[in-house]
Design goal:
The complex is a heterodimer of chains A (283) and B (335). Chain A is mainly alpha-helical and 283 residues long. Chain A is built from 12 helices and no strands. The chains are: A mainly alpha (283), B mainly alpha (335). Chains A and B meet through helix 4, helix 5, helix 9, helix 11 and helix 12 of A and helix 1, helix 7, helix 8, helix 10 and helix 11 of B.
Amino acid sequence: MKTLRDLFKDYRFTFSFIVLVIIVILAVLSFFSPYDPTLWGVVPKNMKPSVSHILGTDSNGQDVFWQATFAVRNSLIISLVSALFSRVIAVLVGMVAGYRGGTIDRVLMFLGDSLLVIPLFLMFIMISMMVRDRMNLAVLGLMLAAFGWPWDARLIRSMVLSLREREFTMTAILSGTGTVKLVLKEYIPFTLPLIFSTVINNISFAIGTEITLAILGLVNLSIPTLGTMLNWAYTSQSILLGRWWWILTPVTLSLFLFIALYWLSVSISEYLDPRTRIQRVGA
Amino acid sequence: MNFVKRYLIPRLISYVLVIWLGVTVVFFIPRLIPNDPVVSMIHQMRAYGSNLEPGAMDGIIHDLTEMYGLQGSWSDQYVAIWGRLFHGDFGVSFFQFPARVSDLIATAAPWTLGLLLTTSAISWVFGNIIGGLAGYYTRKRWSRIVDAVAMVVRPLPYYIFAFVLLMLLAWVVRWFPITGGASLGAMPAFTWDYIKDVLWHSFLPALSLVVLGGAVNFQIMKLLVQNVNAENFVQYAKLGGVTEDRIVSKYIIRNGILPQVTGLALSLGYIFSGALITEIVFSYPGLGTLLYRAILNGDYNLIMGITMLSIVGISTAMLVLDLTYPLLDPRVRYT
């Protein structure tokens, strides 16, 4: 409880917390939506915000508010899939490279470094083009996960490198602890805060990349996400035609979401360890 | 000699390896994904309603396979892709038919390079200077304001930020043109009017890149300076009566800037992607817009060309930056 009270003293944490709670509530609301998000023309087109449609309706005949709830939910699903799988890769690679060292370390780090150097965005475009027909939330999440691990693997590796030199490692090895148990029981607790802050960064990266790919038309546009909503609003000339309620909904949601995620990560890592700030801005 | 053996050769080897890996990944992605580009191309042609005779269909399949570089065994194709890269020849664009991919890229590249080089230079220099000063004068009012702005701007993806700028400055208050690299019908010429026109049109895309890139540099530099500031030699200089201006510029910023040079090299890939996205938002006539149209049309050769050239380009730029590092840091001499 004390931890939470301390965290809430940081206005950034309070802000992020409130924004994220609202976002999650929106995502949960999607289950109670009176409309099917894939159907067009279920409500009158291009209505201004009113009592019956609190955020108005769009040119496809969909309710903007309920569409936004689906968009938030799906964007969160993509980012969570991506964060989960890329964390598994990053932790495995980081731990193995850091603990084993030698040739394995060099090969793994070379692979990771190359992925950092290659313009990832172009890779995403190539892959998305190839799988455009069968693109769904899980495929997108997995694709982002496949490329989202190198930097974090490097961070975890450097942490394990220093842990390996500590005395308790020697004590554990000499008292007969197996490698797997050592890593799981002794190292993971140390690296958890770091892993947690990389999770948040990765979620934000995944949502951002999804939006960009959606704008390029490289995802399945019939699944509502923050990106596809923006794409529909943009390509339907909603700005020129003055339909601000349509275009501003995904834009405002994403602005708040990105700032909240970043501030959450910053405030938590500063709370846990003021020295991690250097990692935070580097990541 | 020692420099060559201990630093230059390993660095060159990693340069070659990265390019090799990049091109190899680009080679394997289309082949490992269970989706035949030739078949999907034919589906697209069918969808546009063209009616083909069976014989013509075989011909088209053959031509498409050849154009996509998909004939022969995988090893043949792999050799062929390197041949293409070395000759700078990526075949013809499918949708702007007789035009060669290399020509299309050559027309678009100067726009992107101009935008990219200017904005990364400006955001790097200004981000570091302001970040350095803000790190030293942490308690000043302006330093906190800039810090707060950076905290808001930093997490935004290029696309969202550029889009918000565009909405605010081109639609709400109509200060800047919405799209294009120059006014319609303006002829490229080395005259003040034309240059002014180009600068005018590129202001918004440049602004979005400078502010976002600058915010990142600002934050990192601020932190670096705060760390240097705590070091003994700075305290010593202060006690010794060295003027504050001199401490900031010669002692602190000079020391803090070094990791930032490496940072610039590492961030090139991100800046490049950012520039592509920014171009798409502002319809700026560079590689990004070219790529966007290539994606919309499924112009496979063009996408391959842009991807491979940017892998080579970015790795080369990083190599150059890395090799110039000793010029800045007298402690690194590679002896």
